[in-house]
Design a protein that fits this description.
Strand order of the largest sheet: 3-2-4-5-1-6-10-9-7-8
Radius of gyration: 19 Å
Amino acid sequence: MSTLVTGIGIAVAGVENPGDLLRPGQPGSAPVEPRERLGRKGLRYKDRATQLSYCAARDALEEARLLDDEGRALRGDRIAVVASSNYGNLDTICRTVETIAAETASATSPMDLPNASSNVLASSVAIRFGLTGPNLMLCNGETSGTDAVRWALALLASGRADQVLVLGAEPDTAAARRLTGRDTAFDGAAALLLETRRTAAARGARARAGIGGHARGAALSDCLAGLGSHDARTPAAWQAPDATGPEAPDGAGVLDGVRDLGLARQWRGASGALGVLQCAASAGWFAAGGASPVYAVTGGGAGPAAGLVLVGPGEAG
């Protein structure tokens, strides 16, 4: 079964379209302001990751022509949500814990309670856009964004949904910086609308890219071997995981001679959003005339690696 990307949404500073993800960021780009993109309604008391996800989700659903005039999803009962974020509501959790430790639970804000739930990002997006299909939230470390796409593929293959909205979001908050030890953190979100070729054809949807297979392994080499079993061609490019590091540019020692599109280096700290960003950036690569296939890989290093085979819209459709 072929799976297509028919909608993409991005809420990252200085990024207007998927191709921009592959170009060096503009210094001094203003952070995304959700109120300017969406208006104020429904944003109060929502954490930063959820607000960024609203922006990306709206744009992906709109591009896929799945929103009505009131901003609600068409046939939302058949649209699932799979979201990925490792630090999404960390600021709420830390603030709540610190308040309880200092003043007891009676001092906590009732407005923080919904945002303290681990699945707040996925559930909030589903509620805002009327998406009542299956709803999953992943907080799975560096492979989380790629794993979210893999779970979306499983939902489509099982017939649990006609479309799946995949989200990856990480906020730049003091709590996230403190946990990671970084002076700066990624701040943004990306969304993909996935559906089968049959469903897309029935409603005349346009493919931006296709997903030709996925693999997960205990090491990077195992993952790459699994991806090769789906498409025997040498990849035209790949989205290397952050774990390969600057000492292995362009896949040296891993995929010799294969260009690394550099997303992990360009957007360091993307964490649970990285796999979703890689898919969006691959669509930008194809739109600019880049060849297929592209491997998008997250994780590796001392832990497992997860990857996807991305193909151009001509091959996907």
